[in-house]
Design goal:
With 128 residues, this protein is an alpha+beta fold. The protein has four helices and five strands; from the N terminus they run ββββααβαα. The longest helix has 19 residues.
Length: 128
């Protein structure tokens, strides 16, 4: 089997995911998953599609992550992994979609508007 690649995005994070047959190693930016995401919760988020399909020990995964914070990066990696697994086996798509792993979360940070302190917040109104 050749290398299958996919793209995952979340907020400002972009994950380029490369999946090939192997023993279950996950490398993120040339570092191990446990060192890149010390939080077990974020490790769990990244592994969710693999655990759902029960193929966690069948593939070696390499992820290039850019931008965003650790939460957005972990969810971008999850989307990329899910998309790559569907490229490998299209019959898995309904089960991953039911869990919400195939849906790109479209929420982005709203831009700051001129004359305001933040995107929607206004300065205090003074009648006099």
């Amino acid at each position: 089997m050749e290398v299958v690649n996919a793209l995952g995005r979340r907020k400002a994070a972009i994950a380029r995911v490369y999946v090939k047959e192997g023993s279950g190693k996950i490398l993120i930016n040339k570092r191990d998953l446990e060192t890149y995401f010390p939080s077990t919760l974020l490790q769990y988020v990244v592994k969710q599609p693999l655990n759902k399909l029960g193929v966690a020990e069948q593939y070696d995964i390499t992820v290039n992550l850019q931008g965003g914070g650790y939460k957005g990066q972990s969810e971008a990696a999850r989307l990329g992994i899910a998309r790559a697994l569907v490229k490998i086996n299209p019959e898995d798509k309904p089960s991953l979609r039911a869990e919400g792993f195939m849906t790109r979360d479209p929420r982005e940070v709203e831009r700051k508007k001129p004359g305001r302190p933040k995107a929607r917040k206004r300065f205090q109104f003074s009648k006099r």
